Each structure stands twice: as C-alpha cells, then as structure tokens.
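Database export, one record per block. Field names are fixed; values are copied verbatim from the stored entry.
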Amino acid sequence: MATLSPLPTIHILATSELHLAAARVSSVWEWYVIRAAGFTAAGLLILLMISGIGQVTGYTYRFLEPIKAWAVHKAMALALCAAVLVHVTFLVLDHYIPFSIPQVLIPFLSHYSNHSSLFGISLSGIGVASGILATYGVVTIVLTSLYWKETKRKTWRWLHYLSYFVILAVFVHALGTGSDLRYGLFRKVWIMVFFILLLAVISRLWHAGTLRSKNVPSVSNIVD
C-alpha cells in the first residue's frame, strides 16, 4: 500500500504561514516604521548626549579631532531630526492607533498610554505630551546650534541646556507609550541607560568649571 509523502503538506502549511505573516505585516507596517524610527531617534539622542558630554569633558578628543567631533555631532543631530519626523509622520498615517495632526503637535490632546507606571507613579496622560515637548526641544536645540552658535552664543548656550530636559522627556515618553517598554528586559535596559546618562550628566557638570583652567579645547571655540 502506497504511503503519501508529508512534504506536500509541510509545503502547504509553510506557504500558508508565510502568507499570514505577510498579511499581518502589510496591515500594520506603519506601526513597524513608527517603532523603528522611535528606537533610532532614542539611540541617536543617547549618542548625542554622550558626544556632547565627551566634548565638554574632553574625552571625545581622545578619539576624534575637535572639528571631526563637531561634524559627527552635527550629522547625528540632523539624523535625529529626520528620525523624529518619520516617527511623527507615521503616527498620523497609522490606522491601528489613529492620531490626528493636532494630537501630535499639541501636548495633552491625546490620552494614549500603555498603562505603565514608574516607582508607583502612573505615566498615563503624560507619555504623548512628553514626546511632543521633547520634539520641540530637539528642534529648538538643533536650529539654534545651526544658526545662533556664533551670532547669539550666550542664548545658544542656555538653550542647549534643554538637552537635559529632552532626554528626561524622551525617557518618560518611551516608558509611557512604548509597547516594548511596558515590562520585561527592554524596560529594565531603558531605565538602566537613563541612570547611566544621569551619571554622565553629573560628570559633565562636575567638569564644566574645571576644564577652562586646564585649557581643554571647546568645539564651539574651534569650529567656525
């Protein structure tokens, strides 16, 4: 008695699974773009913070010349703006969790949340708002760095301190809205990264007054 080979059945099942996966991706592909752009923006922001602190403390110049360090810093800032633009644009285009244009531009219009909390404090209602405020902070810092660094140096320097608010706002935004950061390993890693950055900021503030006496070059004094 002839027996049927299981290969055709396996092939049919595999093909069905592939079609199902493709259908799922095609129905929520905007969501994947939103996630990718968000992770990219967060990564670039962390690198920018490390780069900026490294330039103030002088550690960056152990690896890069001042002019190259500033060029890399500038390129990452522009890439961050592009990632944020993609993130916000696809939030509006996404149909799974619809956002209107006013909701991505005006804080507290949207009440979307992943219902997470931090140290017992609910993040509902402030996740989206903190992301919007962080976006405005990023735009302000980048534009003033491009156009006011030489002409309005004192104003530029004070506005550059917004970067500390931005990283805090992004931290809250990711915890309060990110589907990957509601619980689990990613959440723990994100919190750990934030506290590492906090230590780096403390180091930056500690060294800011002493570097001038050591004549460590500042990129703002080197680059035209």
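Remark 1: Strands lie at 117-118, 121-122.
Remark 2: Residues 30-222 form one domain.
End of record.
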